[in-house]
Design brief:
Blueprint (H helix, E strand, L loop, with lengths): L7 H8 L13 H5 L8 H13 L6 H7 L18 H11 L8 H13 L26 E4 L2 H6 L1 H15 L3 E3 L8 H5 L3 H17 L4 E4 L2 H13 L7 E4 H10 L5 E11 L3 H6 L5 H7 L1 E8 L13 H4 L1 H12 L8 E4 L2 H14 L4 E4 H9 L2
Parallel strand pairs: 1-2, 1-3, 3-4, 5-6, 5-7, 7-8
Helix pairs in contact: 1-3, 1-5, 3-5, 8-18, 12-14, 16-17
Amino acid sequence: MSELLLNPEELKSITEYCKKCGMCLSHCPIYEASDRLESVSPRGKLIIGLGLLSGELKLDETLSHKLMSCVLCSECVDFCPAGLDIPNLILGARISSKVYEALPESLAKVIENIKTKGTPHGKDVTEKSKWFDLVGEVEKEGDVLLWSGCTSALTNPNLVATAYKLLKKLEGGSVTALRDEPCCYAMYVYTGNLDAYKEEMLKVIERVKEAKAKVLVSLCPACTRSFRIYSKLVGIELPFRVLHVSEYLHEKLVKNGKKIALPNPVTAAYHDPCTLVRGLGVRDKQREVLSSIENLKWLEMKGTRNCCGGGGAYGLYQPDWSAKISSRRLRDVPEGVKTIITTCPTCEATFKKAIKRENLDIEVRDLVTLVYEGLKE
């Protein structure tokens, strides 16, 4: 992921390098889901962004909808002959044009949920603490802090509880978590509102500092990116390390040569979360963790880095197109495989909806659950 440009003149200058060749089109899940609508293709969104930056276009809900029609998967970047980081240019255009001032109704509702309830899902932030009841007492302070993220805590509290118990086992000491954990506010960045993001993120960081954490371990790649990358956009220096859970497990298991074994053989396909592999550049560590698990035969999905359809919180405000993308991705599961492993709660939740919709006999598991199962005595 290249540096995010915030200066409108720089954005215009770089965006003009787009050759309009269309190499990106067949690699854009939004373009396919929209039945090949040019205005929501990577090329189309760059042109809209350029028009907004130059003043030739005036922001309204229609243009906002098109500019927000991106899962930020960055697959287009791999095939751009001009070497453009298209999602970053789109994100920069959202910020420079203040797209949050003209959001379509469905997306405005997501932002309103964050403001009034503390989560983008429309559920109150207090519901994120339900997993605490599954583990007993949780220390108020600790060197390591487990960050669940809104999606994990609200859709799969058992995963968060398992992750907490796993971290406790690996640390051999105190592990903390935040009751009523706040949002990571990545949605404010997605919608171009850096001022609101900075204001809220400073409060979040104070909560983490109060817990005396030296390392924050996040179950969610988007939350990890919010802490590790987006915070730098607004000049915030973090006083603690931030690791995605796959990076943490790599440090604790692979680097220490620790082997774990599942009690029964499992064959599964691994799905890469776009934000993890492209947004954060974590490509190999999760695979090395998978390879360290005995009794696990794991396979790559066809089209290794295709999107699940939920990136950039897309499923919350454009569920129909998100559903098309996730159904398409399920066709990439190798024949005969009945288990998908991923390392992202949004990917997991998106796949589970698609599997139910398509009436398929496939389960979805987070890497955390496999590691915990392999370590249980």
